C-alpha cells in the first residue's frame, strides 16, 4: 500500500475558547475518495480548514505527501496542489464565472482541454461564462465552487458538503462530476451528509465524534453494517437517505 497523500498526527485545533479538534489522527490514501463522516458539530469542517491553513493546529502535524504543511499560509498550501471547496462555496459574486475560474487556476492559464471537461460536467457554466456569478442559481453556484477546484489537476481535493440543500437532479450532476474526477485518479477528502452519495463515491471512510476519529476503514464495510452505523453515528444510513 502506498504512503497516504495526507496524514494528520495528533492534531488539536481551537477556535476562540472552544477545543474543536482533540487529537485527530487521520490518513487519506492516494487515489480515490475518502469520506469524512459524523454527526453535525463533531469537527469535520474544522479538519478540512485546518488542513487548508484557514485555522491553525495548536499542536500536531499535517503532512502532505510527507511534507509538513502545518504552519504554511493558505496560498502556499493551494500552490502545493490542494484544492478546497468550502461549505459556503467561496465564490466571488461580483466577478463573472470566467473571472472566478481564472482566479482559481493557481498554476497558470487554464488548460483548454481541462476547461472543456469542466463544461461537460457542468454545462450551465459554459452558458453563463460571461455572466456575474452572483446571478447564478444556488445549484449553479455550487457547480462553480466545485469547478474552481477542478479547473486544474490537484494533488488533493478537500470538499465540504457539496450536495447540501440541493435538488436531486443537481445532486446527481455533482455526484457524476466527482465520480469522473475520481476515475482520473484524484485523491479526494469529502465531507458529505447524503449517505447515498457517500456510498456511491466513497472508497475509504473516516468517522469523527467529539473532535476525534473514532473509526476508519472501507466505505463498503460501514455501508453494509447498520449496527456499526448506529454505534458510530447514532443512525443507520438506510434511515437517512
UniProtKB/TrEMBL annotation:
Database matches in SMART domains: AAA
GO biological process, one term: L-amino acid transport
Entry keyword ATP-binding: yes
Family annotation (InterPro entries): AAA+_ATPase, ABC_transporter-like_ATP-bd, ABC_transporter-like_CS, BCAA_Transport_ATP-bd_LivF, P-loop_NTPase
PROSITE patterns, per the entry: ABC_TRANSPORTER_1, ABC_TRANSPORTER_2
The keyword ATP-binding belongs to this UniProt entry's keyword annotation: yes
GO molecular function, one term: ATP hydrolysis activity
Record domain ABC transporter: where: 6-235
Keyword entries, A-Z: Amino-acid transport, ATP-binding, Nucleotide-binding, Transport
Family per similarity comment: Belongs to the ABC transporter superfamily.
Name of this protein: ABC transporter ATP-binding protein
Organism of provenance: Thalassobius vesicularis
Record lineage: Bacteria, Pseudomonadati, Pseudomonadota, Alphaproteobacteria, Rhodobacterales
Amino acid at each position: 500500500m502506498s504512503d497516504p497523500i495526507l496524514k494528520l498526527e495528533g492534531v488539536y485545533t481551537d477556535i476562540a475558547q472552544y477545543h474543536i479538534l482533540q487529537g485527530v489522527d487521520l490518513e487519506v490514501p492516494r487515489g480515490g475518495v475518502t469520506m469524512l463522516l459524523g454527526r453535525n458539530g463533531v469537527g469535520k469542517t474544522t479538519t478540512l480548514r485546518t488542513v487548508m491553513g484557514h485555522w491553525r493546529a495548536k499542536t500536531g502535524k499535517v503532512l502532505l505527501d510527507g511534507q509538513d504543511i502545518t504552519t504554511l499560509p493558505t496560498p502556499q498550501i493551494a500552490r502545493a496542489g490542494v484544492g478546497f471547496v468550502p461549505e459556503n462555496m467561496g465564490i466571488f459574486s461580483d466577478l463573472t464565472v470566467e473571472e472566478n475560474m481564472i482566479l482559481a487556476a493557481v498554476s497558470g492559464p487554464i488548460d483548454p482541454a481541462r476547461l472543456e471537461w469542466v463544461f461537460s460536467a457542468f454545462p450551465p457554466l459554459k452558458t453563463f461564462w460571461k455572466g456575474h456569478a452572483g446571478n447564478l442559481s444556488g445549484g449553479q453556484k455550487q457547480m462553480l465552487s466545485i469547478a474552481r477546484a477542478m479547473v486544474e489537476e490537484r494533488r488533493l481535493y478537500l470538499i465540504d458538503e457539496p450536495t447540501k440543500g440541493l435538488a436531486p437532479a443537481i445532486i446527481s450532476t455533482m455526484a457524476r462530476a466527482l465520480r469522473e474526477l475520481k476515475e482520473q485518479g484524484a485523491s479526494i477528502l469529502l465531507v458529505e451528509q447524503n449517505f447515498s452519495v457517500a456510498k456511491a463515491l466513497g472508497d475509504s471512510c473516516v468517522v469523527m465524534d467529539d473532535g476525534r476519529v473514532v473509526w476508519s476503514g472501507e466505505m463498503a464495510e460501514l455501508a453494509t453494517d447498520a449496527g456499526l452505523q448506529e454505534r458510530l453515528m447514532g443512525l443507520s444510513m438506510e434511515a437517512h437517505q
